[in-house]
Amino acid sequence: MQIHNLVQGTPEWEQFRLTHFGASEAAAMLGLSDKVKRTELLHMKHTGVAKVFSDWVQENILDHGHAVEALARPLVEEDIGDDLYPVTCSDGVLSASCDGLTMGGDTAFEHKQWNVELAAMVEAGIVPDTHMPQCQQILLVTGAQRVRFVVSDGTRDRMVFVDVLPDQAWFERIRAGWAQFQKDLDAYTPAEIIEKPEPAPIMALPTLSVQIRGEVVATNLPMYREAAERFIASINREPSTDEDFANAEATVKFCEEAEKKLVAARDAALAQTSSIDELMRTIDHVSNLLRATRLDLDKLVKRRKEEIKADVFNKARDAYSQHLADINAELRVVTLNWLPSPDFAGAGKNKRTIATLQDAVSTCLANAKIAADATAKEVRAKLAVYQEHADHHFLFSDLQQLIQKPMDDFRLTLTSRIEAHVREQQERANRAAQEAVAQSQAESSVESTVTGSQSPVAAPAPSVTPLFSKPRAAQDRPTDDQIIDAVALHFRVHESKAIEWLMTVDLKAAGARLAASF
């Protein structure tokens, strides 16, 4: 851990914030913040302007309770029996700005303003996921043994706390999360982040007036018709942004209202006379035009939203598939085909703007990549164990299934299977040796019996006739299988490897060496 002597608000402080991944940003990075979206954090980090980023963090992320924090600190010091000092520290690119840290570094202090809902959770011993990443990163960076997480208004009456202890699972999640965030930041293409837009003002149609007395006395209907046709012609029928959709939805409502006003005008005219054909036909024409426009535009908006949503989902699926393909290409002998597909549709559910949809899906994608990387890390460790037994790889044709086991089970499966194979080989070799000994003994017994049953032959005098005794039976050559088993057992390899070696033996050269040795 490195401690930094920085004054809040100085250029050095702002640059430090920009170039480090702070504990207060960890929840947003993991997509757990209820204040800031992950894409917003990416966007602001990408700006590269230290003051802009620092001001944004101050406004959107940090708890605005420094005065309350100062009141609470002596109360916490009294409780823990030690002094607390505000400190900014880092471990590599990760950083933490502690509300307080003891001189021995064993206890850190993090304060949040009094909030009834948060206080109730803390009083029950629960730190919500919106705050846990910050506490765990403080522990990760400082090496402290606990974080005293306090919610208060600076008084004893309204103060609750819980001690947060180091959690290795959270540490790994935070490290992996920031690693993926850095990759996304390196590949980030900035896009404008805007609030949900208000629809643009819609061109107003003139108020329709009709006066009749057996005939049309006065009306602005022709002007109204021209205005309506101009308005309809100006409608954007290719919405693609949140602003476009807001305008289109407002236009649908406007057309519906205009239709109602036209019907009201027609009814008013009919109340004054029995039949004014041209007036009625014009009103019907404009009314039908507005109705058709409204219905078409409503369908178009729904269709375009589905098209854009499908495009966002497809791009996320493609990105995840490519990420998995890269991992599988590196692993080579196995693939991560058992990982579940990310639920992009679930992540995008009930998102009413393109910006919130893209943020939810990109956060889901990032978390899926993090999970895949974590699994790949475990698989690499198992493959390292697997490579230690290279001579016995032939025993693990089901490696794809075995690799999904926990490490201890995986290691046990490897050693058990190898031991069983070696034991089987030893038993086969022992049986072969016993059979060879038994066969040799049987042949020796037969030879002794034959020799003992023969009577001595007297040599006639005076000539001597040489006797030709029966040749001694030669010892049988071991079978091919016995030779292969003997080589395999001696070198502790599979029979296939022993056969491969025997096929490459240079018998001529071996014979020459043997002859030269005599």
Automatic annotation (TrEMBL):
Bias type Low complexity, positions: 435-464
Residue ranges of domain YqaJ viral recombinase in the record: 12-145
Lineage, opening ranks: Bacteria, Pseudomonadati, Pseudomonadota, Betaproteobacteria, Burkholderiales
Annotated protein name in UniProt: YqaJ viral recombinase domain-containing protein
Region (Disordered): 435-479
Pfam families per the UniProt record, alphabetical: YqaJ (PF09588)
Taxonomic superkingdom: Bacteria
Organism in which the protein naturally occurs: Ralstonia pickettii (strain 12D)
Extent of the signal sequence: none
